[in-house]
Structure formats: C-alpha cells, structure tokens
Amino acid sequence: xxxxxxxxxRADTHLGDVVETHGLxxxxxxxxxxxRLVVSIVNQQLSTTAAxxxxxxxxxxxxxxxxxxxVADESVLxxxxxxxxxxxxxxxxxxAFQDGLSADSLRTMDDDEVIDALTEIRGVGVWTxxxxxxxxxxxxxxFPVEDLGIRRGMEHVFDVEADAxxxxxxxxxxxxxxPYRSYASLYLWRVVDD
Length: 194
What we know:
The protein has 194 residues and is an all-alpha fold.
C-alpha cells in the first residue's frame, strides 16, 4: 500500500478510524491466476471450512492446470466434493485458458476488459471477476459491491441499518475512495471480521 493510499483513506471521515486501527494493508498479485480462478469457483457459495476441504482434496488428487482438469475423470472431481455444476465450471475455465486466455493477457487488460473476458466463461460472474481483479491481479481501484461483506462493512462505517443503503448509493459513496477502492474494500472486510 502506498503512502498516498494510506494517507487518503486514513483522512476519510467514515473509514479513517478503521484504517488507523488496522494500519497498512497490501495487495499482492497471485503467482498462478489460473489456480486462483479455480479456487474462486470452488469457494462459491460454500462455508470457509467446506471450501478448504474440497480445495485440499482437489489439489491432492488432480493436477490443477488447464490440461490436468480437462483430462481428470469426472468421478474424481466429484469425489473431491465438486458438484456436477462446479465440475462444469472449472472445466469451462480450463477450456478458456487452453483456448488462449492467459495470465499475461489478463494482466495487460484494463479492469472492464478483465471482467468481460472472465464473465464470458460460464460459471464466472461479476463477483468472481472483481475478486480476481483484487486478489489475483492486485488492482487498486475495484469496488465489489456484490459482496455481502462489503455491504455489511459499508453499513457499519456509515452507521446505517442493514439494507438501508441501496447498492447504487454504496457505489456512489465509494467514489470518494478512488483510486484506492480495493484497499478501502480490504478495510471494509476487516470491519466485518472484527
């Protein structure tokens, strides 16, 4: 996190105390974007514990590469704990990467292009694409309003009742955190974790 990002967010009326409490936070690009995208799909709509169990089994039993996932027996993927739908989704991601989508190409795209490229893959939605921008590509100015934790964090820092702020208003309020909305998001998740 740059000094400018820290200074700006710390000076924010609503987020400043949270920034002060948690100090500098960082965004680090992932070494293997393909693996991280597969993990994001595994994690969708699961508890942290269930997702970790399935992820560990998958990485123990299958080579988590585009080729490895495409040749893996469906029964092996199902035995790891993937639903039939998620088997299809991880294979869709593997096909997209085998057909030319790559870490290098994604890194050269702007945020909207990354979201467009990823959401063309069946099983990858906007939430997953925005998480990819933040946690895989380490983009500094992404605001994933689709995320429940972000919305709960916004309610806390703006001191409003649950569901009192429409998402459009949350996006508008987050504009003041640009160009550091990814860092602001990290702080909002910290609020919820506290």
